[in-house]
Design goal:
Helix content: 25-40%
Largest sheet: 7 strands, mixed
Radius of gyration: 21 Å
Structural class: alpha+beta
């Protein structure tokens, strides 16, 4: 017999895994269901000659965990897990023209606040999954949702392999192409292609022949605002690095399924990507680093237009499934962590039987914040694809002006240094956090 606290979480990426831990701390019984089947992935890789890892997260590049995300992780008992990774603190983001000129600096650190971190997705996710296992949360692979049905008392999930599971609630954490969203919100907008990107990972250091594999900055964006092109670089930990090459022309897109898959012919593809970056006029250090990457993952860049409601019945969305947007404000992961924290705190206060109140308040708290972040990301991207030289000059002028005002008056502080529990406390003044 159910105790009313069984939660099926669809997707074991960072948002899903953190939500599982947050709910477990509140006395719920979460289970993670991941569409990737590690064994089948290995078989497929052997056939195609691709590299493969047993970790679900061995794709993509890096991301930033800013102060608001780190504060949320601290509330969820996960900050020490991330701090133990010994990642260098992130102090600033550097924006330049493609050739490295006309530098504009946006600080990412503030006195008295938690320092931001930038790391590989794999590094972060592995740490979170270890915490999932410590908490005794079960994770099942090869479970791709194809449908779900709801009653007044529970939700039944149907998987592609023919199995089903019935839970008291479902949390959709299955990314920007969320099947949970498609089934529960068939009228919701579909993700739109914003451009194409190539995420590459490398080992920084010096090669035996003396070639230096290192960036000029801890983090930087080399931008061609006329053509809408960007090369983003970052150090991710002591020895790792990331190169993200993007073309923001939404008439170009890659023919691929919704899953990220690294390229198989790495030397050939690395040389092609380096040649592309070089033809764009990027500095030689960036070209050299790109030529020596150890993994390249091509993917379309998607933007999900704003949704005003993140729940229906006993199903609720978190992370990119609810508000996936373009990666130009550094808040994608951080907002997903805040989602997990707000949802868990409200459920801990109102209990399983109060789920309608929980979902209403979750929606009220989260929708305005994630829509603000999405709007800021789109504004930044707009400046990066001006289309003309005059438009680029104007865009860079306003970008520098915005950075100046932001730095002086702390205009981004309400996002980057935010504590989600202030939002919860505002809506539920008598809440006792667990």
């Amino acid at each position: 017999m159910s105790n009313g606290r069984r939660v099926a979480i669809i997707g074991s990426g960072p948002a899903g895994a953190i939500t599982a831990i947050a709910l477990k701390r509140q006395g719920f019984e979460p289970t993670l269901y991941e569409k990737v089947d590690p064994i089948e992935a290995i078989k497929e890789a052997i056939k195609s000659g691709e590299d493969v890892s047993l970790q679900f997260s061995s794709i993509g590049g890096g991301f930033s965990v800013l102060a608001n995300g780190l504060k949320a992780l601290a509330h969820l008992g996960l900050y020490d897990d991330i701090k133990a990774l010994d990642i260098d603190k992130l102090h600033a983001m550097n924006f330049m023209r493609m050739d490295g000129s006309d530098l504009a600096v946006k600080p990412t650190a503030k006195k008295g606040e938690i320092d931001a971190l930038h790391m590989l997705r794999t590094t972060f996710h592995n740490a979170i999954m270890k915490a999932v296992h410590r908490a005794g949360i079960k994770t099942y692979g090869g479970k791709k949702l194809v449908n779900l049905t709801q009653t007044a008392d529970d939700v039944t999930v149907f998987f592609e392999d023919g199995t089903t599971v019935t839970a008291d609630f479902v949390v959709g954490a299955d990314g920007i192409h969320s099947m949970t969203r498609k089934v529960v919100f068939p009228e919701a907008p579909k993700p739109e292609v914003f451009g194409i990107g190539y995420t590459a990972v490398l080992d920084r250091g010096v090669l035996p022949d003396g070639t230096k594999i290192e960036f000029d900055y801890q983090m930087g964006a080399y931008v061609d605002g006329v053509e809408g092109r960007m090369v983003f670089i970052s150090r991710c930990g002591k020895h790792d690095g990331e190169v993200f090459v993007s073309d923001l022309d939404n008439t170009k897109w890659l023919e691929q399924n919704e899953d990220w898959r690294p390229v198989s012919d790495l030397p050939k593809e690395a040389e092609k990507l380096a040649a592309l970056v070089e033809s764009w006029g990027a500095p030689q250090s960036v070209v050299t680093c790109t030529r020596h990457v150890k993994r390249i993952t091509p993917a379309n860049i998607y933007d999900l237009q704003d949704m005003d409601v993140f729940y229906k019945g006993r199903v609720v969305l978190v992370g990119d499934a609810a508000h996936g947007t373009i990666p130009f404000y550094g808040q994608g992961l951080n907002q997903g962590i805040e989602d997990a924290g707000v949802l868990a705190d409200l459920w801990g206060h109102f209990g399983a039987d109060g789920y309608e109140k929980v979902f209403q308040l979750y929606n009220k708290i989260r929708v305005p914040r994630v829509q603000l972040c999405a709007a800021n990301a789109r504004t930044t991207a707009k400046r990066m694809k001006a289309g003309t030289k005059s438009g680029e000059r104007i865009g860079r002028f306003f970008m520098k002006l915005a950075f100046g005002f932001t730095n002086i008056f702390g205009l981004d502080d309400g996002v980057y240094y935010h504590d989600f529990r202030d939002d919860v406390r505002k809506e539920v003044p008598d809440i006792q956090f667990k």
